[in-house]
TrEMBL record:
PROSITE patterns on file: BEN
Keyword Repressor in annotation: yes
Encoding gene (name): BEND5
One Pfam family per UniProt: BEN
Name under which the protein is recorded: BEN domain-containing protein 5
UniProtKB keywords: Coiled coil, DNA-binding, Repressor, Transcription, Transcription regulation
Length: 252
């Protein structure tokens, strides 16, 4: 009897152990519920990631499709009687003698817009090139990249580089008039008013898609010369910095 009584667990200890066991079971149940909730969240996130990947792929396809549709629309806008593109290009490479004399007379005016010559329509695509008007062609890929450029300033500067190139810009000025900041400044040859008008026309077409306010359009177009002048100064500054680096390197 004494050994039997020693083997019996006191009631208070038994109840305490029972409560601890029940508490642990409850905690285990909560952990299982939390684990199941986490599992469901992970499954949902995996589905969202999969949907996101599909969405990204779909967006890329839509962008490609949109680009192809734009190309088709540009081709249709330029459609009409059959035109020999190579012949038109060769005829448009140089302006007529009368136009050349007009360009030289108008070289120093910032508001000059040459009369449109009877050439093919603008924004026609041909062999990886885009026609901007009056025989000016630019790379198609660069043209598409230009369309997503933010701001008139950056758009104008990038377009100027596409049309003239940095080698030409660094040795030219917008009007051909020497700067007044330097007494011994030598005037550089002016940029072609013909090509300047193309820049303005492209910027006009871009602005016209954003607003019909003629005052705003005129105000924004009036800054074209300023933007190109800033680009020329940036190019020359970059060239001078490069020359200094080379001179410093040669001295070492």
């Amino acid at each position: 009897m004494d050994s039997l009584e020693d083997a019996v667990v006191p009631r208070a200890l038994y109840e305490e152990l029972l409560r601890n066991y029940q508490q642990q079971q409850e905690e285990m149940r909560h952990l299982q519920q939390e684990l199941e909730r986490t599992r469901r969240q992970l499954v949902q996130q995996a589905k969202k990631l999969k949907e996101y990947g599909a969405l990204v792929s779909e967006m890329k396809e839509l962008r490609d499709l949109n680009r192809r549709l734009q190309d088709v629309l540009l081709l249709r806008l330029g459609s009409g009687p059959a035109i020999d593109l190579e012949k038109v290009k060769s005829e448009c490479l140089e302006p007529e003698p009368e136009l050349r004399s007009t360009f030289s007379e108008e070289a120093n005016t910032s508001s000059y817009y040459p009369a449109p010559a009877p050439v093919m329509d603008k924004y026609i695509l041909d062999n990886g090139k885009v026609h901007l008007g009056s025989g000016i062609w630019v790379d198609e890929e660069k043209w598409h990249q230009l369309q997503v450029t933010q701001g008139d300033s950056k758009y104008t500067k990038n377009l100027a580089v596409m049309i003239w190139g940095t080698d030409v810009l660094k040795n030219r000025s917008v009007t051909g008039v020497a700067t007044k900041k330097k007494k011994d400044a030598v005037p550089k040859p002016p940029l072609s008013p013909h090509k300047l008008s193309i820049v303005r026309e492209c910027l006009y077409d871009r602005i016209a898609q954003e607003t019909v306010d003629e005052t705003e359009i005129a105000q924004r177009l009036s800054k074209v010369n300023k933007y190109i002048c800033e680009k020329i100064m940036d190019i020359n500054k970059s060239c001078k910095n490069e020359e200094r680096r080379e001179a410093k390197y040669n001295l070492q």
